[in-house]
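Researcher: We're teaching a course module on how sequence relates to structure. For the next exercise, students receive a sequence and then see the predicted structure as tokens, so they can try to spot secondary structure elements on their own. Here is the exercise chain.
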Amino acid sequence: MGEAPEKTEHRALIAGVGKSQVGRRLGRSDLDLTLEACARALTDAGVAAADVDGLIAWPGEWPAARGFCGPAVGRVKDALGINPSWHAAMQDGPSQLGAVMSAVMAVASGYVRHALVYRTTSEATGQGGSGRNTTSPADVVGVVGLQEWLRPFGAVTAVHWLAMVAQRYLHESGATREQLGGLAVSTRRWASLTPDAVYRSVIDVDDYLSARMISDPLCLYDCDVPVDGSVAILVSAADTRPDLRAPVRIEAMGAMIKSRPFWDQWADHLDLPQRDSAQHLWSRTTLRPNEIDVAQLYDGFSILALAWLEAAGFCGPYEAAAFVEGGHRIGPGGELPLNTSGGQLSGGRLHGFGFLHEAVLQLRGDAGERQVRGAQTAFVGAGGGPLGGCFLLTTL
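Model: And here is the predicted structure for the students to work with:
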């Protein structure tokens, strides 16, 4: 018998990462932020812009709330002065990280050698002084699809839909809001060590419980922070490793979808795509959850991070609230350092790309004060609601 074929993931590397300035209403254009992130990713990798032959955006330009989409691929191509042989924009797929997965597969196939992927948002500026009442899809494309069944009851945005999931979760598990608050407490501890995090003041559970309620049981500190910012990821062919500054190995990725990918069609409140994608990832590696040194799990709303903890096997069903209680297990020095840059709850919502950026820094030992000592494996899970996709990264 011949040798087993090389795994797709092993034919590509995370060659470089870059993040622009991140903040609230920065007064900078989407293109300006994108170019800053792309330049930093290329410098980080030691790759010239002229060598980039793949370019992909998430999500690309399409009808959406102000500040959501970022610049189109064509605009970025011209601004970078490159002529890629492959380009794409991911408006759908297995979570925001689906764009990175597509880049991995394009590189692994040999079609391109250096694929630059970016995600840019200016939601903080786009929402202006109107708050999140500007984020409803119905306000952009009208009352269509599942909105026809949700909007008449006042459930117009994701916080309403996931509040119902959270409420049911608390009821079924017997968990409390005090336990849930441990996640917010922990992310603030990490954010206090992260220079570009939006909210860096440490809070305690009492602060969490006294915060303004948004949609019961989710309060202000259960919701991520809209920001202006951009993240770029350079995915390169594995045989370019000698030319790269500090590449990171892609051990496995998962994007399976078995559950019904619609906000109103889950078989039960835990039947989320996170479970499918995590199962898929673990089927593609011999590593197990207890071997993960650091986890970066999507926290667009706190309940989603709990769903990821259970889906990825870091704790059992209905155990995640107790796992995060007090924030000690997942905070600095804890058994599973979680969302070590402050996540999206405290660091700012970069739609999953910030987690991948942070995972790479941790595996390289480049995370400064928040560095997890000896980190060699990182699980990154992105997507909330009907989206789910994940990566397992390791040091070389």
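Model: If you want an answer key for the exercise: The chain has a mean pLDDT of 91. The chain has 14 helices and eleven strands.
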